[in-house]
Write a structure and sequence with these properties.
single chain; about 260 residues; alpha+beta; FAD/NAD(P)-binding domain; D-Amino Acid Oxidase, Chain A, domain 2; seven-stranded antiparallel sheet; three-stranded antiparallel sheet
Length: about 260
């Protein structure tokens, strides 16, 4: 199978499951399965909000401070960079899909786009339990066990960042998901929508702003911000402090777009 070969190529363990093995791992799934690919090593986060709060608490324990201001007020002065109510020698633009609100004002024409996505939490039906995330690659949706319930999430939507939500994919996937796993009532009043920043070459922008001393960029991680955040933070910290970077930063340079 191509998926298994690709996983093996990058050192990711995988196992092909027959229908009987699927039933043993996830007894509440239903369907006429040909088989499945089980990836034993990836983890998943059942409460991303709690994880973000834990990172915040760790940052504070390490001596960090959180200040709230308007990033659109960022400007350079003789001492470095400042926004309304705060100043620093250096600044990092890490605003995800809203990063263009800052870098365009400063004269950069980075082709930042957006892929929007939706998800909806539902209660499990009866005593049904889902142990791990399940992807239906043919029908294009994922069911994942979360602290709030079972999360249904779908593919990407190409739309303007601030356009009204159009959760058509969730509506279409919901009956298919119910056929795969017993789902009860929706927990969320409406589907959540997120905007994922992306660039034409599917690589983020990480590194120094070409025309402004002390300004750094860090955005465009698409769906992978949670996974790539720690590695990006390390890479950026090493670049900012003059250390040898652990990975080649040149593919992520902002000036690759001209």
């Amino acid at each position: 199978m191509k998926e298994v070969e690709r996983a093996s190529q990058f050192g990711v363990p995988s196992e092909v499951l027959k229908p009987s093995a699927i039933a043993a791992r996830e007894p509440h799934l239903s369907g006429d399965f040909t088989g499945a690919i089980y990836l034993p090593t990836p983890g998943f986060v059942p409460d991303p909000g709690a994880l973000a709060k834990a990172y915040t608490a760790l940052f504070k324990r390490k001596g960090g401070r959180f200040l709230v201001s308007d990033a659109k007020t960022l400007e350079q002065d003789a001492k470095g960079w400042r926004v309304r109510g705060a100043a620093a020698r250096e600044a990092v633009v890490a605003l995800g899909p809203w990063s263009d609100l800052v870098f365009r004002r400063l004269g950069y024409s980075i082709p930042l786009g957006v892929k929007r996505g939706y998800h909806l939490h539902l209660a499990p039906g009866g005593n049904a339990v889902l142990h791990e995330p399940v992807l239906d690659s043919d029908l294009g949706f994922v069911l994942a066990p979360m602290n709030r319930g079972i999360r249904l999430t779908t593919g990407v939507e190409f739309a303007r960042r601030d356009a009204p939500p159009t959760p058509v994919q969730v509506q279409q996937a919901l009956p298919r998901a119910r056929a795969l796993f017993p789902l009860g009532e929706a927990i969320d009043a409406k589907p959540w929508m997120g905007a994922r920043p992306c660039l034409p070459d599917m690589l983020p922008v990480i590194g120094q702003a070409p025309r402004h001393a002390g300004l750094w960029f860090d955005f465009g991680h698409q769906h992978h911000g949670l996974t790539l955040g720690p590695a990006t933070g390390r890479l950026l910290a090493e670049m900012m402090t003059g250390q040898a970077p652990f990975a080649d930063p040149r593919p992520f340079a902002a000036d690759r777009f001209g």
